[in-house]
Write a structure and sequence with these properties.
Layout: E1 5-10, H1 40-46, E2 57-62, H2 66-72, E3 81-84, H3 89-104, E4 109-114, E5 118-119, H4 122-138, E6 142-147, E7 158-160, E8 170-171, E9 174-176, H5 181-190, E10 193-203, H6 204-214, H7 216-226, H8 238-245, H9 252-257, E11 263-268, E12 272-273, E13 293-295, E14 299-302, E15 308-311, E16 317-320, E17 325-329, E18 334-338
Parallel strand pairs: 1-2, 1-4, 2-3, 6-11, 13-15, 14-16, 15-17
Antiparallel strand pairs: 4-10, 5-12, 6-10, 7-9, 7-10, 8-11, 17-18
């Protein structure tokens, strides 16, 4: 365990693609989608406890979800739950989180993780994190973890490098938006592109310097927020809300990572999955003899294959003559859609 490391887990997302299981108060990261005993956020915390003590693990969330976060993470102090008064995208969230953490642990090395990812090889994952911390502490670099692609995926952003070797750091040439199918194939075939995992490692002083140079308005607002003292922990403070609303909605990727002079990537292959939508469960669970993935129900089926069937209430579900469907019974709602339309689920609740 290394004493100068802190972890910031980003847990403010709404998980709309997992409606109706996911709700505003209990979004995807608070669900036990993979492990029947642990939520995704609990799994995230558990996998870093070998390298950082629990008093140095922080969760960035919002007032709607903070009770659920504390319920899932009883080992964390309420002081380690950072409540953002408003959602202003990841640049504001990471800047604000860094400010709060720096008040307790000066000049820490900060690991920023998503709250809802699956990592299969957790030992390898921790080794890569420690390597990233070591690199970031020696030079003013920001490290991102890139995932070695195993298919031409259109649902992820990509990172371009000159070339890459798993486990060996290299410079990021550019960040690429989610591509279409043809461009994704070109990326993967070239052998120079990695999936962008959205996980970052840096020294807190380095990220503040990057804000100053690349996002001066964010830096100005963070300095104004700093003047509030202990009130920065009060999401109902009107002055804090005023300053927060002045943050432009910009991702940390676009605002800093793409422009920083020394952004590095460590290519990885530790079994990463961002569990972005229901079809991602097919990469985690084996289907039955007909390729149906069934959770929480006793399924009766006839002439049906390659479906995803989930019940939150344990009711029996029967299917006849259907293929490629997602059928989910939540607490109060039922979803039926084709797997190919899984990315559009959020449109029915917007």
């Amino acid at each position: 365990m290394t004493n100068n490391i802190c972890v910031l887990i980003m847990a403010g997302g709404s998980g709309e693609r997992f409606w109706p299981l996911s709700t505003k108060k209990r979004p995807k990261q608070l669900l036990r989608l993979i492990d029947s005993e642990r939520s995704l956020i609990r799994m995230t915390v558990d996998r870093v406890l070998d390298i950082v003590s629990q008093d140095r693990i922080f969760v960035g969330t919002n007032a709607l979800q903070d009770e659920g976060v504390l319920e899932e993470l009883p080992m964390l102090s309420v002081e380690n739950i950072i409540i953002e008064p408003a959602f202003r995208d990841t640049a504001a969230a990471i800047g604000f989180g860094s400010l709060v953490i720096n008040n307790r642990f000066k000049d820490a090395s900060l690991i920023v993780l998503a709250s809802d990812h699956l990592i299969k090889d957790e030992e390898n994952f921790r080794e890569i994190l420690l390597k990233a911390v070591d690199i970031a502490s020696k030079v003013d670099s920001i490290i991102t973890l890139g995932i070695k692609p195993n298919r031409a995926e259109t649902g992820y952003g990509y990172l371009e490098t000159d070339s890459f070797e798993v486990g060996k750091e290299s410079r990021v040439i550019r960040f690429c938006e989610k591509p279409n199918a043809d461009l994704a194939k070109q990326y993967v075939d070239s052998g120079r592109f990695l999936w962008n995992s959205g996980m970052f490692v840096f020294n807190i002083n380095t990220i503040f310097s990057a804000f100053k140079d690349l996002m001066p308005n964010h830096y100005r607002i963070l300095n104004q927020i700093k003047l509030l003292g202990s009130e920065i922990r009060n999401p109902e403070n009107e002055v804090l809300m005023k300053w927060f609303m002045e943050f432009e909605k910009v991702s940390i990727d676009y605002g800093i990572m793409e422009k920083y002079h020394n952004t590095m990537v460590i290519p990885t292959d530790f079994g990463w999955n961002d569990i972005g939508s229901y079809p991602a469960l097919e990469e985690v669970f084996e289907g039955d003899e007909n390729g149906n993935i069934v959770k929480g129900t006793s399924l009766k089926q006839f002439d049906s294959k390659n479906n995803i069937i989930i019940s939150a209430n344990g009711k029996n579900i029967s299917i006849v003559g259907v293929e490629g469907l997602i059928i989910v019974e939540g607490e109060n709602d039922i979803l039926i859609c084709s797997k190919k339309s899984a990315q559009e689920i959020k449109k029915v609740i917007s």
